[in-house]
Amino acid sequence: MNKLISLLIMVCIGLSCYAQDIALPSPNKTGGKPLMDALNDRRTTREFSDKELDVQTLSDLLWAAYGFNRENMRVVPSANNKQEFTVYVVLKTGVYVYDAQENLLILKVSGDWREKAGKQDFVATAPLNLVYVADLKITSKETAGVDVGFIAQNVYLYCASVGLGTVVRGWFDGDEIKTAFGLDANQTPILTQTVGYKK
Ligand SMILES: Cc1cc2nc3c(=O)[nH]c(=O)nc-3n(C[C@H](O)[C@H](O)[C@H](O)COP(=O)(O)O)c2cc1C
Q1: What is the CA(169)–ligand 1 centre distance, in A?
Q2: What domains lie within the chain, and their CATH numbers?
Q3: Tell me: the pLDDT tens digits for 104-151?
Q4: I want to staple 196 with a disulfide (CB 3.0 to 4.6 A). Which of 26, 82, 126, 158 is the partner?
């Protein structure tokens, strides 16, 4: 019995150590297809392989989504420059917040929570889901609903430019996400997006 308890403790410690913050390499800000080609290739994909994205791709993609391209200014516009979004990054290993200043994924919840990120089957197996969470203390849901379109479209264009698949998704349970990710009352998921290699 004692051995069993020790084993369980070791497994728990092992699991809690497994996921940690992820330091991203600097994003590549050049390359990819020219804009007109990327626009021509932009489309929705709903079939993904389970192949992981490497950290460079993750860094480039997140920078395209919500990075800074001037001091304290983002690659996407936002009404009154409120910058009300936090990008939650849902990987097999855990749920992270993208810190664009530090180029870091900050671990919020360890474990595989991908199935909470949406209602369609591929969500649970695709390597990456993004959850765009607005702070409704600083802007309205309507405004956030406009601002989020720029983020999602940047991800679409990035994916088109490097040959990844993506789908933006409004079909998710916001309350389920709030509970699973430990969001506070004002933090509201506005839109989600799945990314991965096309099957
Ligand atoms: C706000 C919004 C919400 C969407 N929600 C979903 C969704 O929950 N699931 C899904 O499979 N596709 C979703 N889509 C993708 C659309 O179905 C898709 O963009 C549309 O069929 C046009 O296809 P295209 O993106 O290839 O041009 C959504 C698109 C938008 C703009």
Answers
A1: 6
A2: 20-196 (3.40.109.10)
A3: 999 999 999 999 999 999 999 999 999 999 999 999 999 999 999 999
A4: 126
Distance (Å, whole) CA 116 – CA 31 = 34
Joined together, the tokens standing for residue 176 give 């389920």
Q: Are 191 and 152 in contact (CB under 8 A)?
A: yes
Phi, psi (degrees; rounded to nearest 5) at 169 = -135, 130
Which positions ≥6 away from 63 have C-beta within 8 Å?
27, 29, 75, 100
- Choice from 164, 167, 193 to test ligand 1 binding pocket (greatest atom count within 8 A of CB): 167
Distance, in Å, from the CA atom of 97 to the CA atom of 157, rounded to the nearest integer, reads 22
Residue 147 backbone phi and psi in degrees, to 5: -60, -35
8 A C-beta contact, residue 160 and residue 38: yes
Q: How far is the CA of 166 from the centre of ligand 1 (A)?
A: 10
Convert 24-62 into a string of H (helix), E (strand) and C (coil).
Answer: CCCCCCCCCCCHHHHHHHCCCCCCECCCCCCHHHHHHHH
